[in-house]
């Protein structure tokens, strides 16, 4: 982007009440609709696919404990009592604590350097998992992993929201999460294959799961340095990803949509002041309740299939995949129509209802076929709502630093959901795991209530704005997305 365009972008963006950008902006008008689509495809291929692959590594490394547990880790490291739960939940304490400062560092250092570096470092940590002699060493490594991964997911969510207008975002969030969630779909199959290396180099099969997946993560981190793109206004530094005119077009579309493409100078007080906006915490609670479901499924599904449903080791590892594939299909279909119809809250509620149907089938019936169908519905609910809630939040806030703060609080609360999801399924509750099922049911019920309350508020605020009495989020013409 040229200096002239950058200065043009800055003008007026730092006022509290910024008018909508002229829809005839020359930076947009110079491109035909076909050329505009071509620029967006460039962004999709480079940004969404790269972040998705890195998130694939992140999710695989974060949730491979279930596969390792049934592959012999539980016996070798004497994971009796609550030890497995401690190993799973300890990750989320630093994961929650370090997220707000991590998003600030991301904005200052730049996504390319920050995201690729932490990916490389946590890959190395994951390799160390394969050589842990005792369970308490595994606890220490999980703490390090939590620190390193703290900035990744909120950083990706923030970066994606900076590149796309509001009603192009859910599809991109869905593809990003879809690529990542395929790690959960394929991790069981991959783990079963890697387990066959048992005895090679004197390592157990479960140790090879960590070593090989850690090596793959390190490779992804190194590749990420060359592939991750920076923020739109800095994209000319991202290995000539876009021309200056194309970068100016992207910035102009963001300005036209919500007029916050260029960040204000960072001030701690202004950054923390965003905590006074109650809807920030509403979105955070929605994500926490969503991840309570998603982490519970990710960590305990292999164990439920193996112990609760009595499937063989091979079947338990492989039967993890189909529900995640189904979730990916539903997730993308939802995102397409949600962007097209400008709907957010109803999609979140629909997915929660799927959970309210699927979880009782999983937990309170005795036929394995019915229980496995319940697994499908519960997995769709848990995974499809992640991009839905991310986009619901991103569509209803403005300002670069507010967006960074909200991404951190949202995903930080998601980490709290991870703590809950890590503790509600207990060994002593096998094979029905009734308390875990009930906790996830309560979470989905609360999701529906919170969305209903926020929808009523958003409708009221939009009505006041239509009647000329209120400016929403500091921008004339801005309306909340229901």
Automatic annotation (TrEMBL):
Source taxon at top rank: Eukaryota
Cellular component terms (Gene Ontology): membrane
Record-level Gene Ontology MF annotations: transmembrane transporter activity
Lineage: Eukaryota, Fungi, Dikarya, Ascomycota, Pezizomycotina
Location (main, coarse): membrane
Chain ranges of the Major facilitator superfamily (MFS) profile domain: 47-463
InterPro entries, per database record: MFS, MFS_dom, MFS_trans_sf
Keyword NAD: no
UniProt protein name: Phthalate transporter
Keyword Cell division in record: no
Residue stretches spanning the membrane: 80-98, 110-131, 143-163, 175-194, 206-228, 280-301, 313-333, 345-364, 370-392, 404-424, 436-456
Topology within the bilayer: Multi-pass membrane protein
